[in-house]
Amino acid sequence: MNTRLLVEETKARFAHNIAKDYLKNKYTGKLIIAEQNGLWKIDTQFIAFLSSVTTETVVIVDQYNNPVQVNTKELLEVAINTYHRVMTEWYDEHKKLENKR
User: Fold this and answer.
1) Going by DSSP bridges, is the β-strand pair 32-35/38-41 parallel, antiparallel, or unpaired?
2) Are residues 72 and 58 in contact, defined by beta-carbon separation less than 8 angstroms?
3) HSE, side-chain direction, 13 A CA sphere, residue 46
């Protein structure tokens, strides 16, 4: 293998990794939502916590470390819908990126 091919392959791999990092930053930003007077990072742990709460309302700490009383069912519904939508978009773009490779 000659040096030119090695350099081109390295550049392509580097560009691919940069594109993956870009997608991660783009979509993790979309998983932060403002809802019910708080700012929430939507992830599987947050969804699992809300799913396990048996009361109608619960007080939880938001991203700014403020205690906020929320309606559990409403916030869970928004969290699940947001997570599903964003992760589907992220997956679709990631799949396109992998196919370009």
Assistant:
1) antiparallel
2) yes
3) 20
pTM for this predicted structure? 0.82
CA 66 to chain centre: 22
Rounded Cα–Cα distance for residues 23 and 46 (Å): 22
Both structure tokens of 58: 């619960």
Q: Which residue has the tokens 């991203």?
A: 63
> How many independent structural domains does the chain possess?
1
Q: Which amino acid appears at position 81 of this protein?
A: N
Residue 87 carries which side chain, given as an amino acid letter?
M
Beta strand spans in 11-64 (E): 32-35, 38-41, 57-61
Task: Give pLDDT tens digits for 51-101.
Answer: 999 999 999 999 999 999 999 999 999 999 999 999 999 999 999 888 875
